[in-house]
Specification:
With 476 residues, this protein is an alpha+beta fold. The protein has one domain (1-48, 89-103, 185-476). The protein is built from ten helices and 23 strands. The strands form six sheets. Strands 2, 4, 5, 6, 7, 9, 10, 12 and 14 form a nine-stranded mixed sheet that branches. The radius of gyration is 21 Å and the shape is globular.
């Protein structure tokens, strides 16, 4: 037995022991089924929307040790390539409250820390009748660690800096309040364009659609665009030690050179999907990729006006944890979590997380805390011959767009939590003796590292079950 096998046994034992301790405390609190909240403009077809932006760069970014997130542990920041920001868009129908859509240039936030932010805004939510503060993270692999995974390796130490985390929290709070204060009356549109030449597929399919929500104020002031695209912001590469928002920075900059609009960004189904190799140099590839996506966003000519109606279902749920490595990180408090006893998990552990179903007019949005494979959303699973397991697609969960009967479903990934990859069952391959600790190559020689960075290889079924439950009480 090698060291990896011994480490596997130890980690599983520690994680299972934690599960047993939770079990002795009793079952996790029961989660109620959230009922749909419906907001509608009863007098005209206008929305109110407001925008705000703030920089989230620490003043001592090179004087103090910060860690680059996204690739490897113990990878300190040495400089700044471009600044990180947090942006917010308030949206309401003028009746019945509203929502805030936040877009942050960070690797992610755990559900625990999202709750910290929301709690700090409790007075704001009461005053404004805000129904949801939705925090989407761009998942930039050149941002500062805000989850904890990428800190010191030996001995293990969280990569989060408390003062920086407070800065991020404070700035999110600031932009939420300012976005509400800046609201104006106008119309909201949805449009999209295909960008197959900009993104590249890894071991899976991709969704090559860039979607754009466009708010146009009645007073002729600057528009606000919320752009969604399914490609990993990891283009700067694993050797990068300079802080960067990756291609979303250049996407925003290139749009603003042509049209002075407020731009927010969220990732879609990004698992195994990256920016195409449009240049050999990684920094140049990042710049060109962002500029190509900006050109695509500016070219959209199929806008449809959305009725001033918002439907919202905010649904917490327990996600079973089978990944004993992530469980061990929770136990060591390298990252913040909300873990409970879960009988559905072999470790007895479950993570309290959430999904949100949002409809803006007819446009349906689902927020997920992790990184989805496009086929889990839109279909197109591998057949037995091409899957990593040699098993056909019949073992997979129903694609989420099929559950809601809408191929135009938009997914906001890495939103309101950081739960890792969600791998389809027939393409989930674990190391035979070091599952979740070491990656493994399948019979087609494809590397299956995604499985080591997710809660469970069964998570897609849990998500599909929870989503179907939402749709059954919302759309039927």
């Amino acid at each position: 037995m090698d060291l990896g096998d011994l480490a596997t046994k130890l980690l599983k034992k520690v994680a299972a022991g934690k599960g047993k301790k939770f079990a002795k405390k009793g079952n996790a609190p029961v989660i109620e089924k959230a009922q749909p909240i419906r907001m509608k403009n009863k007098t005209d077809n206008f929305y109110n929307a407001g925008f705000a932006c703030a920089e989230i760069m620490p003043a001592d970014v090179t004087a103090k040790k910060y860690y680059i997130a996204g690739y490897k542990m113990d990878h300190p920041v040495t400089g700044v390539h471009d600044p990180l920001t947090v942006r917010a868009m308030w949206l309401d129908c003028k009746d019945g409250g509203g929502i805030v859509l936040v877009s942050a240039d960070i690797i992610g936030l755990t559900g625990y820390d999202v709750k910290v932010v929301r709690d700090s805004l409790s007075d704001f939510t009461k005053k404004t009748d805000c129904k949801l503060i939705n925090i989407s993270c761009s998942h930039s692999h050149a941002s500062i660690d805000t989850v904890g995974y990428w800190g010191r390796l030996m001995p293990p130490q969280s990569g989060m800096d408390k003062e920086y985390m407070q800065l991020v929290f404070d700035k999110i709070k600031q932009v939420c309040i300012e976005a509400y204060e800046n609201r104006k009356e106008g119309k909201l549109y949805i449009g999209s364009v295909r960008v197959p030449d900009v993104i590249s597929e890894g071991r899976a399919a991709s969704d090559d659609k860039l979607s754009r929500f466009r708010f146009v104020p009645n007073d002729g002031s600057a528009e606000t665009w919320f752009i969604n695209c399914g490609a990993h912001p990891n283009t700067m590469g694993g050797d990068c030690t300079e802080v960067s928002a990756d291609y979303p920075y250049y996407l925003r900059e290139a749009i603003n050179k042509v049209k002075p609009v407020n731009v927010l960004f969220s990732v879609g189904a990004i698992a195994s999907v990256n920016i195409e190799d449009v240049a050999e140099d990684r920094a140049e590839r990042t710049k060109l990729g962002g500029e190509m996506l900006a050109k695509a966003a500016l070219s959209i000519d199929n806008d449809e006006e959305l009725d001033a109606e918002i439907t919202l279902v905010h649904q917490p749920y327990y996600a079973p944890i089978e990944n004993y490595v992530l469980a061990f990180m929770f136990i060591l408090k390298l990252c913040n979590s909300r873990a409970y006893h879960c009988a559905e998990s072999s470790l007895g552990l479950g993570l309290l997380t959430e999904m949100n179903y949002i409809k803006l007019g007819k446009q349906k949005i689902l927020t997920l805390g992790g990184e989805a494979f496009a086929e889990s959303i839109y279909g197109g699973y591998f057949d037995a011959e091409n899957s990593g397991t040699g098993i056909g697609p019949e073992v997979n969960a129903t694609p989420l767009a099929e559950i809601v009967n809408d191929p135009d479903l938009i997914v906001f990934g890495v939103t309101n939590d950081m739960t890792g990859y969600m791998v389809p069952s027939n393409n989930a391959v674990l190391h035979p003796t070091q599952a979740y600790l070491s990656s493994y190559r399948d019979n087609l020689d494809r590397n299956h590292y995604h499985e080591t960075n997710g809660l469970s290889v069964n998570i897609t079924h849990v998500i599909a079950r929870e989503f179907k439950d939402i749709i059954d009480r919302t759309e039927k």
